[in-house]
Write a structure and sequence with these properties.
Number of domains: 2
Strand content: 5-15%
Keywords: Cell membrane, Membrane, Transmembrane, Transmembrane helix
Subcellular location: Cell membrane
Membrane topology: Multi-pass membrane protein
Pfam family, one: FtsX
Shape: elongated
Number of strands: 10
Distance between the termini: 28 Å
Protein name: ABC transporter permease
Number of helices: 17
Order of helices and strands: HHEHEEHEHEHEEEHHEHEHHHHHHHH
Structural class: alpha+beta
Length: about 425
């Protein structure tokens, strides 16, 4: 019977092309507007590391005090003194500190121009904590951190530019005038949003090129390539003076596997801040935070407000389109009251009438969804008009969005058809036969 009802529905679409076109356009434009904005919202609001987002935490310690902090919130990063203190304490299963670096890369050819490379100075736990995939090699060990080794992990993209895509593990690369040994080559890895560095990026930057040993970067006096936020009068003139200042530029992360470990680390942060107060470094009560990945994304307001607003507006437009579709379906179904009366008189049940007209509505939804797919493909390519380029390029028409577009279009149309189908199923056969 489903095939029979589907055939009747397709015939009905051709019976009144003007009314059918209006319904298909209403569904198509409504679902396209919703899916275009949803594709952006999905990209910027997703969980960037779903397997471990509840085990990764970023500590914050207020080193500025209530007169200079951010409305009671500690700074979004740590100064050198606090970052090194947390690193030496080893109070977590795994831990890393990081900051952005910008360097030039000298290709092998003597006549080639230097390339710009961006990346991070990190500690060895970075790769295991964040599940960085490797094409060749691996990261470095804690012993290499302590030895301040000249090791570097490079991206597959940079490896292609410098070494032609070959396995370059063990080879030497010149970064900023210093030689480094390549120990690993990553596969494509660029979580969106880039949760581990929201202090210096918006969370949607291009994939980093390099990862180098944190202590080696300090030895080379590499300044941060990202934000550097300070408070009060700045009197330092040397590298050591900069390290001892209250400028925050280092982002810490720790891995904690259980609520007990989280509570223990939070207590450790509080005791550390209290000790700094007793030592006279802080003149205020301990003010610390410990947030996991999703809490951190929410705290940093990573999702652009325009994406939320545009999604709400698009859903409102889609709702208006569905209301219009209800009216058009009602007019379409009730025009066939005489036909319905004859079917009911010949023994058709109300359930069969329901099924026939819901299937017919499904065909309208399928046609509208197909139109919506075409409009979504066009709209996704033009979202840069509303959003920043680094966010606009995240919107993609993949298989999941194609399937979702069709499902939403069909489901929404069928739901919209329930009231018109109910009215059609309750047509009185005697009235229709008498009047005709």
């Amino acid at each position: 019977m489903f095939v029979h009802y589907l055939t009747l529905g397709l015939r009905s679409l051709r019976r009144n092309p003007a009314l059918t076109t209006l319904m298909v356009m209403a569904i198509g434009f409504g679902v396209a507007a919703s899916m275009i904005t949803y594709s952006v919202f999905r990209a910027v609001s997703g969980n960037p590391i779903p397997d471990k987002s509840a085990q990764l935490f970023t500590p914050q310690i207020d080193s500025w005090g209530p007169q200079q902090n951010l409305k009671g919130e500690p700074a979004e990063a740590l100064d050198y003194t606090d970052a090194m203190a947390l690193t030496r304490a080893h109070a977590a299963k795994r831990q890393t500190v990081l900051y952005p670096v910008l360097l030039s890369v000298m290709p092998d050819g003597s006549h080639d121009m230097p390339l710009n490379a961006n990346g991070y100075a990190v500690t060895g736990d970075f790769f295991a904590m964040f599940e960085v995939p490797f094409r060749h090699g691996s990261g470095w060990s804690a012993q290499d951190d302590d030895a301040r080794a000249s090791d570097v992990v490079i991206s597959s993209q940079l490896n292609q530019k410098i070494f032609g895509g070959a396995n370059s593990v063990g080879r030497t690369i010149n970064l900023g005038g210093h030689d480094f040994r390549v120990v690993g080559i990553t596969s494509h890895w660029n979580p969106r949003p880039r949760f581990y560095d929201l202090f210096s990026t918006s969370g949607f930057a291009d994939e980093p090129d390099i990862y180098m040993v944190f202590n080696r970067a300090l030895d080379l006096h590499m300044r941060t390539g990202g934000r550097n936020s300070c408070r009060g009068s700045l009197t330092y003139t040397t590298w050591q003076g900069y390290l001892q200042s209250n400028c925050v530029w280092i982002t810490p992360w720790v891995e904690l596997d259980s609520p007990a470990e989280v509570a223990g680390y939070r207590s450790f942060l509080t005791h550390y801040a209290a000790n700094q107060q007793h030592a006279g470094r802080f003149n205020w009560a301990p003010n610390v935070r410990l947030r996991d990945v999703m809490q951190w994304l929410d705290q940093e307001h990573v999702v652009p407000p325009e994406s939320r607003i545009s999604l709400v507006v698009a859903l409102g437009f889609f709702l208006i389109c569905l209301v219009n579709t209800i009216g058009l379906l009602l007019a379409k179904f009730m025009r066939r009251a005489g036909e319905i009366g004859v079917r009911r008189a010949l023994g058709a049940t109300r359930g069969e009438i329901y099924m026939q007209y819901l299937v017919e509505a499904g065909t309208v939804g399928l046609a509208g969804g197909t139109l919506g797919l075409l409009l979504t493909a066009v709209g996704v390519s033009g979202v840069g008009i509303l959003f920043r380029p680094e966010i606009a390029k995240l919107a993609q028409l993949d298989f999941s969005l194609v399937g979702l577009t069709l499902v939403v279009a069909i489901a929404a149309t069928v739901l919209s058809a329930f009231y018109p189908a109910w009215r059609a199923a309750h047509v009185q056969p005697a009235w229709q036969l008498k009047s005709n």
